[in-house]
Specification:
The protein is an alpha/beta fold. The chain is built from 16 helices and 11 strands. It folds into 3 domains: 145 residues, NAD(P)-binding Rossmann-like Domain (Rossmann fold), CATH 3.40.50.720; 138 residues, no CATH class; 67 residues, RNA polymerase sigma factor, region 2, helix turn helix motif (Rna Polymerase Sigma Factor, Chain: A), CATH 1.10.1740.10. The protein binds magnesium ion.
């Protein structure tokens, strides 16, 4: 039995690694849909290789180019954001890899859930922004959300078979990113290229900058709350520079379970798509002799205030995580474009969190409006 897969965001880091997993497991997966925002040439190459039934290019200006390049193949081509949101409802799809970047993932993922499709969730912002709405909708539609984020995949792997046993707490591990152990003076001078050099993981630009600023871990704290039904005090973050232990779960008897492995996103991708099966892989195997020292220490919240901001957003709830996320997306983009210093990103986020009107129980429209208001305010703090 094949699982029929749609990939939202196929040309990004998670999208391309998902295609590698599908390529290695032709007996288990059949590719149905590829979507990309802008990267027409990669989308065309992927389509020629994997022959999906449907392809969406979100940028409508590129429709003619993509459809002409694929005109000799039995691939249907669509364009536009609306098409991207509609395509997830196709009967032929069993599971959606949600690998869009940022807030843009919320609406199509929600639409897929409402159409009853299981979700492999790489787009953590979907849960950060709309966790309550998304998890409620998943329950109403009997949809499973399989985490792709390596920490949450680790926790998920630890709790399989523990359905009767409540989680006492989870411990999310963080590599600490490229600026681990640096002081404020150093952070004031870091460049885009330095921030994009992650020591362990191969990921997209957005998540790599978020890792360097520790906002990624903050987003993951909020993601963990929604995936596993936890209170803020049940979620701990620990710096583990080797990224071998991907996260841990502590149960009520005090026992800890951890999931370990070489850091490679293809493993959590494959676990999410293949669940409940563990498919054989040729990924590199872990060796203790090559990692004689696994080390752990608490994060430095003075140097990296983003983690504190994320816990604050989680405690306040409502639309506050949405505000924080939007301000962070603006700050990261501005940093990548050279319009904002790395060190000044948390200040923009905090000011925006202090300025946007609070909504205690937002609906989807409130999230869309909050996102746009927060982007406007965050933008006003830029150079
Ligand atoms: Mg992660």
């Amino acid at each position: 039995m094949h699982k029929h897969v749609a990939i939202l965001g196929s040309t990004g880091s998670i999208g391309t690694q998902t295609l590698e997993v599908i390529d290695k497991n032709p007996d288990h997966f059949k590719l149905e849909i590829l979507t990309a925002r802008n990267n027409a040439d990669v989308l065309i190459a992927q389509s020629r290789k994997f022959l999906p039934n449907h392809v969406v290019i979100a940028n409508e200006d590129k429709y003619d180019y993509v459809s002409q390049k694929l005109s000799d193949l039995p691939v249907k081509v669509y364009a536009g954001v609306d098409a991207l949101e509609q395509i997830v409802e196709m009967d032929s799809v069993d599971i959606i890899m949600s690998a869009l970047v940022g807030f843009s993932g919320l609406r199509p993922t929600l639409r897929a859930i409402r159409a009853g499709k299981d979700i492999a969730l790489a787009n953590k912002e979907t849960l950060v922004v709309g966790g309550e709405l998304v998890t409620k909708s998943a329950i109403e539609n009997s949809v499973n959300i399989y985490p792709v984020d390596s920490e949450h995949s680790a926790i998920f792997q630890c709790i399989v078979g523990e359905e009767m046993n409540p989680i006492e707490k989870v411990i999310l591990t963080a590599s600490g990113g490229p600026f681990l152990g640096k002081d404020q003076a150093y952070l004031k001078k870091v460049t885009r290229d330095e921030a994009l050099q992650h020591p362990n993981w191969c990921m997209g630009d957005k998540v790599t900058i978020d890792s360097a600023s520790l906002m990624n871990k903050g987003l993951e704290v909020i993601e963990a709350k929604w995936l596993f039904g936890l209170k803020p005090e049940q979620i701990e973050v620990i710096i583990h520079p080797q990224s071998v232990i991907h996260s841990l779960v502590q149960f009520e008897d005090g026992s800890l379970k951890a999931q370990l492995g070489i850091p490679d996103m293809k493993l959590p991708i494959q676990y999410a798509l293949g669940f409940p099966k563990r498919l054989r892989s040729d990924l590199e195997r872990f060796s203790f002799s090559e990692y004689p020292n696994l080390t752990f220490h608490a994060p430095d919240l003075e140097i990296f205030p983003n983690l504190t901001l994320a816990y604050r957003a989680l405690e306040i709830g409502g639309n506050m995580p949405c505000v924080m996320n939007a301000a962070n997306e603006v700050a990261v983009n501005a940093f990548l474009e050279g319009r904002l210093d790395f060190f000044d990103m948390p200040g923009v986020i905090e000011e925006t969190m202090n300025s946007v009107a609070y909504i205690a129980t937002p609906d989807l429209n409130d999230y869309v409006e909050t996102d746009s208001e927060a982007r406007k305010i965050a933008g006003s703090y830029l150079l």
